[in-house]
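new request in #modeling-help
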Amino acid sequence: MKEKTNDKNIFGFWLYLMSDCVLFASLFAVFAVLRGATFGGPSVVDIFDLPFILGETLILLTSSFTVGLALLAARRRRKTLTLTALTLTLVLGLAFLGMELGEFYGLLIAGEGPAHSAFLSSFFTLVGTHGLHVFFGALWMTVLTVYIVRRGLLESSVRRLTMLSLFWHFLDVVWIFIFTFVYLIGAL
Amino acid sequence: MTIKSYMTGFGLSLLLTLAAFSLIATRSLSTELTFAALVALALAQLVVQLVYFLHLGREKTSWNLTALIFSVFVVVVLVGGSIWIMSHLEYRAHSAKDIIESEALTPLMHGD
């Protein structure tokens, strides 16, 4: 199959993901150090809404599953199925983003924005950086979907979808650590 | 890369996620145990997603896996090292604060 010749590109993208991993690690390290520096303001316990975060988590997890299905369909050159799965993934991703923006907005209007304590700074930076990645992933997904609609499932599209799915899975992996170490353990 | 792989991964991840959230929702274990369990559940879900979604470890020699292992090493040093150093500094600052606020140095603080 022609996919073999794309291995180098995909490996290169994987290496990018590894560097992104280190970026998130440094943000996690900062959060770990500063999570107690609440300056009299809210701590994780005060901002943690369990059903809400569970909802976000399940949405993102499901979207990671559906992007996998999209890739499977694409490899079998099933265009309609691919587009359906991609659209579903995108909708879930946007739902996640909407929820996260809602969470941030709520904090901002309550006067608990990133400037108000070291804890809040590191929280907004870590969670916000993840959200920004999801945003760019969603943008990429939109462009790729339109491209597949107009040009069909070309080999280049399958290669790009492979990379996008790696990116999307990676974001769900990072989220595992966010919901565990920021929210759940913060609420202990 | 089969649909079964993705379904297994999804199912296991779902279970691990619900387990983690229910530990906090029900508070059924002690704080220390809950912490340990949450870490274990997170690492388990990491492995599940790496194997079933990202298909790592399926081939005999995988450069992807090699790159990941190296990155994990960097992450462990970065995060672990930062936490170690910063908590040690906090300990030192805290001890210094205790000494300064103790009777021994208080007269010097009032600048009479």
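bot summary: The first helix of chain B runs from residue 3 to 26.
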